Amino acid sequence: MTGDVACAEGGLAAGCLFFGGYPITPATEVAERMSERLPEIGGTFIQMEDEIAAMASIVGASCAGVKSMTATSGPGFSLMMENIGLAICTETPCVVANVQRAGPSTGLPTQGAQADMMQARWGSHGHYEIIALAPSSPQEIFYQTITAFNLSEKYRLPVLVMTDEMIGHLSERVIIPDAKDIKTVSRTRPKGRKDRFKPYRPGPDGIAPMAIAGEGYNIHMTGLTHDERGYPVMTVEAQYEMMDRIMKKVRQNLDDIIETEGYRLDDAEIVIVSYGVSSRTCLAAVDEARELGIKAGFLKLITVWPFPEDLIHRLAERVKGFVTVEINLGQIHLEVERCTAGKAPAFLVGHPGGTIIPPERVIDLLKEAF
Amino acid sequence: MQKTFDIPRELMTEEELLQPGMLSCQGCGASLAMKLALKGLGERTVVVIPACCWTIINGVYPYSALQVPVIHVPFETAAVSASGVRAALDARGEKDVVVMAWAGDGGTFDIGIQSLSGAAERNDDILYVCYDNEAYMNTGIQRSSATPVGAWTTTTPAGSIKEEPKKDIEEIMLAHHIPYMATASVAYPDDMYMKFKKVRHITGTKFIHLLSPCPPGWRIDPSKSVQITRMATQAKVFPIYEVRRWRFSKKRGRLEESWKYTINIYPDRELSVKEYMKAQGRFQQITEEMLHDVQERVDRKWDELIRKADGRPLTPNE
Which of A249, A320, B30, B122 reaches 20 to 30 Å from B179, CA-CA? Predict the structure, then answer.
């Protein structure tokens, strides 16, 4: 199946019962699949009137207790940003898949890129933490969409699945395991007296149990700065307290959230950093480099946000340098450079978008720089 | 016998503002409509196009079909981008240039309706044209709020075909008190041409709703696209009419609000909704019950229209 279809199937496997969709190349197939599959399993697919509505509807559905998702691409992702911010502030779990295409603006609608990575991190206004995953094949899209739901439910925030046109439209074998072999997580629900419930009072793990609209708990959700009761409080102290919670639930659980993979990394002198479709370039490049006597290894970021700062920092102590391979003109490269803290040089093999990066370009840079 | 049309001589003789290089599908109504529209408007026209089939149809460099300035804008902004162009042209004193926003049904009925409503309420001096092919065709046939009852699309698949009637965009626009609203169809080129010729001289927001056949989306033979579009008007599913807000009162010596409805094309043969729908692949799963409801709605709308057009139905010969 294609990556887009695998994304829809991953969502269903994770327990998604609502999809608010809007057509956009190259993400339309996710919505099309959901429009067929959700009614079959008792879920709901609604085609909304635009991406603002699509995003708003999944936040609404999640407030009412249903796992929900949407899928889009660059221009639609831009329109979703305000409601992504609302989900951050109200701590509402939901999943957004961005099947990236080359931008800016309309760009190359039918050709891929990885240039929305910084938008994924900072696209909505204000300061916040978010989780973004980057699959590199249809199979990984399937699993990471499940992971996205699990993280989203556990930490009560929107999780972004940053795929791209290349793997979104790529057909590969995808193995869907039995439902019993798929681990799914659902949000913690409140217990105890309904009249004493405070919707944003964190539990022992720092995350507030989430009540469902309509089950008897008093809920007040707002994008205004709010206190534990959920009511707006326009003070600096309330802002401190709320920001502390939405930042800390991610910052204090980095080990649980961040996932990376290494390939020939143990004795590597040069670390190639990549994610998503560009990972496929790097696997070939590492083998080729080793044949040429260059001791390269590959660090694959499965979680891009939060960024594995400590790992890069530690690697920088012992390696000769870093090369980031990505289909943009330097986004994650800047993060790598920041985290090396000057201890090792960082280079970029970038591309403005529209096609994958051939391994030869990585080899050429390795030869030139090291 | 098929009725033939009196095509004004200008249609044959004027310079073509739509040149080869188009990337439209065979039998595309939207490309034929653009040709006729520009014939009517002339070269002093700026075209504003949001995301829609026409972003593609216009061609990829070195080909570009349109011989007038084109601005491609985001999906949700056709009307207000045109408002901006208008404001600048006015500031520069270029009053005779027509700014035409040219959007599909998704960009008009759905994502673009907020900006269209804003421009219409301000009565910005633009021409807004919706070429309505009744679904998101550019992304591969997803339902829009212009998709009719009973139509198959990829997001209203078999088993859950669309049950909701399409939005009544004509009345929505008239509720904005705009000076001119018309429907037109590629099946009646002379009528369409005359309407585009006319709007050049009307100030304020003009809205034209075009029924624009899409052979892949409607599941019809490309060679039949004009014929089937004509059937839409014959079956009264898509009446061709226009509404003008103002008329000049000689008695008072000024413009007065009159809301004059004129039916421009009377069906030249009786055709049921069923005959129109069954001619297309997209309606193959429509139920008898749905057909009955649609027929009733169509009849009611037609009666209303006749009543609004001064209660005096013109005969085709009049």
Answer: B30
